[in-house]
């Protein structure tokens, strides 16, 4: 919270620090589960290539190595396509 206020002082009235924050709830450590399973795929938004890797839920740690490996392959494919487009 201190870092957030240091970055964006307008979050609280002047000079109040973290005491000026109203904490509604804490959502730290949540592991969102995506309906339909994890999303590991490429996408284009406004001409920018994006590689998605999220939505693993509670099994994210167990799946992390395999999902990371697939994500790296997708990212490398995107980079190869860009290199080919420059030739």
Structural notes for this entry:
It is built from two helices and two strands; from the N terminus they run H-E-E-H. The protein has helices spanning 2-7, 60-86, and strands at residues 39-45, 48-54. Strand 1 and strand 2 (48-54) form a beta hairpin. With 87 residues, the protein is α+β, with helices and mostly antiparallel strands. The termini are far apart. Strands 1-2 form a two-stranded antiparallel sheet.
Strand order of the largest sheet: 1-2
* Strand/helix succession: HEEH
Q: Helix tally? A: 2
Number of strands: 2
Return Rg in Å. 20 Å
The end-to-end span amounts to: 48 Å
Poorly predicted residue ranges? none
**Average pLDDT:** 87
Structural classification: alpha+beta
- Share of residues in strands: 15-25%
What sort of overall outline do the alpha carbons produce when their principal axes are compared? flat
Q: Could you estimate the helical fraction of the residues in percent? A: 25-40%
User: How does the major sheet shape up?
Assistant: 2 strands, antiparallel
Key terms:
87 residues; alpha+beta
Which SSEs are present, and which pair or pack?
Layout: H1 2-7, E1 39-45, E2 48-54, H2 60-86
What is this structure, in a nutshell?
By secondary structure, the chain is α+β, with helices and mostly antiparallel strands. Helix content is 38%, strand content 16%.
